[in-house]
Design a protein that fits this description.
Blueprint lengths: L1 H42 L9 E5 L14 E5 L9
Antiparallel strand pairs: 1-2
Length: 85
């Protein structure tokens, strides 16, 4: 009986290990890619962007009717030709 329980635990630990690897490894790779992109953008004095989306924080009250100081904004890069007024 003890051998059967240990065999089941062994199978369960293998399955859990595979599941953790499936989620953990891509998460680490994506985080490393983001870090590289951010360092590259900062070295060129640009706002870091991942997949055309940047995260910025409002630093002053100059846009107070729409955005307030310390608000966090997601900014998507678009082509100038796509903008209409």
């Amino acid at each position: 009986m003890a051998a059967k329980q240990e065999k089941n635990k062994s199978k369960l630990s293998k399955v859990l290990s595979i599941i953790v690897d499936i989620f953990f490894i891509p998460t680490i790779v994506l985080a490393l890619i983001c870090v590289v992109i951010m360092f590259a953008a900062k070295s060129n004095n640009k706002v870091p962007s991942v997949f055309g989306v940047s995260i910025v924080t409002v630093l002053s009250n100059s846009m107070e009717d729409k955005f307030y100081k310390n608000d966090v904004l997601l900014i998507k890069s678009v082509n100038v030709d796509e903008i209409s007024v």
